[in-house]
Write a structure and sequence with these properties.
The chain has a domain of 55 residues: Monooxygenase. Helices cover 84% and strands 0% of the residues. The protein has three helices and no strands. The radius of gyration is 14 Å and the shape is elongated.
Length: 83
């Protein structure tokens, strides 16, 4: 397998792993057990990885972190909204 394929597979698995959490929060409107600080810091880290991916022109890093940014920001928004 090429590094591109491995990167895309790894990124896909990381993104897919967050979907159940996002879906659960959306359905239950319950975010009590989630740390706003943790998800805020994680979102910032993902955003920085996205910038890094753009700078090095790495498609797997860009795609993974763009999708993760959307999912983690959704979690942060729902955490604030459903307090």
């Amino acid at each position: 397998m090429t590094p591109l394929i491995i990167g895309l597979c790894a990124g896909s698995l990381c993104v897919i792993s967050f979907l159940p959490q996002v879906i659960k929060i959306f359905r239950t409107k319950n975010t009590r057990d989630l740390s706003l600080i943790t998800f805020s810091l994680f979102s910032l880290g993902v955003f920085l990885w996205l910038i890094y991916g753009i700078l090095i022109k790495s498609l797997p890093v860009i795609l993974t972190n763009a999708a993760m940014a959307v999912l983690t920001l959704l979690i942060v928004v729902m955490k604030v909204r459903y307090k």
